[in-house]
Design goal:
Distance between the termini: 34 Å
Number of domains: 2
Radius of gyration: 20 Å
CATH topology of the largest domain: Rossmann fold
Helix content: 25-40%
CATH class of the largest domain: Alpha Beta
Bound molecules: 5-S-methyl-1-O-phosphono-5-thio-D-ribulose
């Protein structure tokens, strides 16, 4: 990966001991850059649950390494089963979790127990490297879209992209999904500017996407979640690109809560709305996203409280609402395929429908 900034732009790796897994603690960003060592299967599961790591592809890669950590201690059939159950229980919406665990099972289950740990580390590394390569390819295909828009504008002004949540390199292994085309466009000299939705309640846009874009040197502006429609009405958005946690075989896009409202506003204003995702995010077993994508419901405290940096540098949590106010916290929503202009994958851009996705991935459909 290229781009400005000194921070290494890979999110998961194996430590020098050849066994411990290292991740970036995303709960501390943008205020503190710190890594966390995952020494056990349980460490990996807790890191996913507590969102030390988050973002669909990185959840998958962490789960894969979590299985390797578990099998390094106990490679028995029972331990494989226990690892699968524990990791699957961490977060429900991102299908990359199930995908990665299935890939790991396919490799380790047929092996004799004493060969499993080594094979698991190798497979987890392959999953991580493949994710990085898929995101880079997503960037190449998305770059072509941005180049076309730039040509259509007569190479005047700038390209304004609106994104929601963090579908950046922090959410993947490298590059990101929604951000990969942005980074490649910036690296290619196209003046691209990003409107960054803050993304309540956990503010992944404000804390993670804004930080990433700053590290890369991409001009950006943080906006409240309610501002996107207004900006679109005033001609200030050329395209929207978001990520996904689970996209159905028919192109319904599950992503961070609030994505659907951006897609509605984009449709009303004739603005292209793309979802960028690796094929590991496509759930080929379902078609009706609203009925079938499981939506994670998180703690109400994420809505009633907010975390930020105090003047003394410490991270503090403060209450926003009256102490007895009930709060609902559905973490994801589903954007129906009719609102999605296209799906940017590692194999190219598909229309958001069953036929187009199947023709890009004839080997994956079931
Ligand atoms: O709850 P999070 O932070 O894990 O949600 C992340 C998102 O919604 C991302 O948009 C999605 O995982 C795509 S990541 C490339």
């Amino acid at each position: 990966m290229t781009g400005a900034g000194d921070t290494p732009k890979r999110t998961i790796w194996v430590d020098d001991d050849g066994r411990t897994v290292v991740v970036i603690d995303q709960t501390l960003l943008p205020h503190v850059f710190a890594t966390e060592k995952l020494a056990t299967l349980e460490d990996a599961a807790v890191a996913i649950e507590t969102m030390v790591v988050r973002g669909a592809p990185l959840i998958g890669a962490t789960a894969a390494y979590g299985m390797a950590l578990g099998l390094a201690v106990d490679p028995s059939d029972e331990a494989v089963e226990g690892a699968v159950v524990r990791l699957l229980a961490t977060r429900p919406t991102a299908v990359n979790l199930q995908w990665a665990i299935r890939e790991m099972e396919d490799v380790v289950r047929p092996l004799p127990a004493h060969d499993r740990a080594q094979a698991a580390y190798a497979k987890a590394a392959e999953i991580a490297d493949t994710d990085a390569a898929m995101c880079s390819a997503i960037g190449d295909h998305g770059l072509e879209l941005i180049e076309s828009l730039w040509e259509a504008k007569g190479q005047q002004g700038r390209i304004d992209v609106l994104t929601h949540c963090n579908a950046g390199w922090l959410a993947t292994v490298e590059w990101g999904t929604a951000t990969a085309p942005i980074y490649k466009a910036a690296d290619a000299g196209i003046p691209v500017h990003v409107w960054v939705d803050e993304t309540r309640p956990r503010n992944q846009g404000a804390s993670l996407t804004a930080w990433e874009l700053g590290q890369w040197g991409v001009p950006h502006t943080l906006i409240v979640d309610n501002a996107g429609g207004h900006l679109m009405q005033h001609g200030l958005v050329d395209l929207c690109i978001v990520g996904s946690d689970r996209t159905t075989a028919s192109g319904d896009v599950g992503n961070k809560i609030g994505t659907y409202l951006k897609a509605l506003a984009a449709k009303d204003n004739g603005i292209p709305f793309y979802a960028a995702l690796p094929s590991s995010t496509i759930d080929w077993t379902i078609e009706d996203g609203i009925a079938e994508i499981p939506i994670e419901r998180r703690e109400p405290e994420e809505v009633t409280h907010i975390t930020g940096q105090a003047p003394d540098g410490s991270l503090v949590q403060v209450r926003l609402s009256p102490s007895d106010t009930p709060a609902a916290n559905d973490a994801f929503d589903v954007t129906p395929s009719r609102l999605v202009t296209g799906i940017i994958t590692e194999r190219g851009v598909a229309q958001a429908d069953k036929e187009s996705l199947a023709s890009l991935f004839p080997d994956r459909t079931i």
